[in-house]
Amino acid sequence: GAVVSQHPSWVICKSGTSVKIECRSLDFQATTMFWYRQFPKQSLMLMATSNEGSKATYEQGVEKDKFLINHASLTLSTLTVTSAHPEDSSFYICSAREAGPSEQFFGPGTRLTVL
Amino acid sequence: GIQVEQSPPDLILQEGANSTLRCNFSDSVNNLQWFHQNPWGQLINLFYIPSGTKQNGRLSATTVATERYSLLYISSSQTTDSGVYFCAGARTGGGNKLTFGTGTQLKVEL
To answer: Which end of chain B is more exposed for a tag (fewer CB within 10 A), N or C?
Structure first.
C-alpha cells in the first residue's frame, strides 16, 4: 500500500504558540489530502480537505483562521494550529489519495499537547 | 453528510473464535474502507470495498451497496487482532470525504 508520513509524531507546546504539522505522501502523488482530529476514545472527525494548489475547504465548526492548511505540492500538506490552547490538544491525522474515487491512506498521526 | 453506524461497540472473544462486525450507512457510498487502529493510533488499511467481497488471510469483507451495509469477518481470531476497528464511507458525489463510524473495540483473550 501507499505510504503517508507525518512529522512530528508528537509535540508539546505552550498555550498561545503555533504548531506546524507536515503530511507527506512518499510514493504517490496526492491530489487531495485530508486532515482529521481524534479525541481520546472517540472516532475520527474530518476537519478539512485540501487540494493541491487551491484553498482548503473546512468542515462546519472548524475555524479556518485557527487551523491553517497549505497544500503547496502533490506530496506535501501542512496544518498549522495557530495560538494553540489546551482544548486544541488532540491526535491529528492526515490522509492522502490519488485522483478519482480511490482509497485513502493515513499517516501515523501527531499527538499535540498544549500546556 | 452521511451517518455511519457500527456494531457492536465492544466485543470480547476467546482466541480462535470468529466474529462479524457490521457497518450501516444512511446514504449510498462510492468509497468504503475498513481500518484497524493500532495501540499507537496508526490506521491500518484493511479493505477498500465499495462493493462486493474481498478476502485477505483471516479477514474478509462484504459490501452490499444496494442495501447500504458492509460486514467485516474475522476468523480464527488472535490476540494481535485486538484494537479498534473502524469503517468509513464517502457519500456518492461527496468529494470522497470519509465519514467514520464510532468503531468496534475488540479484545481477544487467551
So the answer is: C
The Cα A64–Cα A93 span in angstroms is 17
Residue identified by cell 457490521 is: B22
pLDDT of residue A99: 78
Q: Is A40 left (phi over 0), alpha (psi -120 to 50) or beta?
A: beta
- Cβ–Cβ contacts within 10 Å for residue B15, how many? 13
Residue B50: pLDDT above 90?
yes
- pLDDT band at residue A58 under the 50/70/90 scheme: very high
The total number of residues written for chain A in this structure? 115
Alpha-carbon span A50 to A111, nearest angstrom: 21
Integer Cα distance of A21 and A110 in angstroms: 7
Selected for mutation to probe chain A from B97, B99, B102 (highest A CB count within 10 Å) is B97
Instruction: List the 53-92 stretch of A: residues with Cβ below 8 A of B.
Output: 91
Instruction: Give the HSE-up count for residue A18: Cα atoms under 13 Å, Cβ half-sphere.
Output: 10
* Model confidence at A1: pLDDT above 80: no
Q: Residue A34 burial (CB < 10 Å; 0-12/13-18/19+)?
A: buried
CA distance A80 to A18: 7
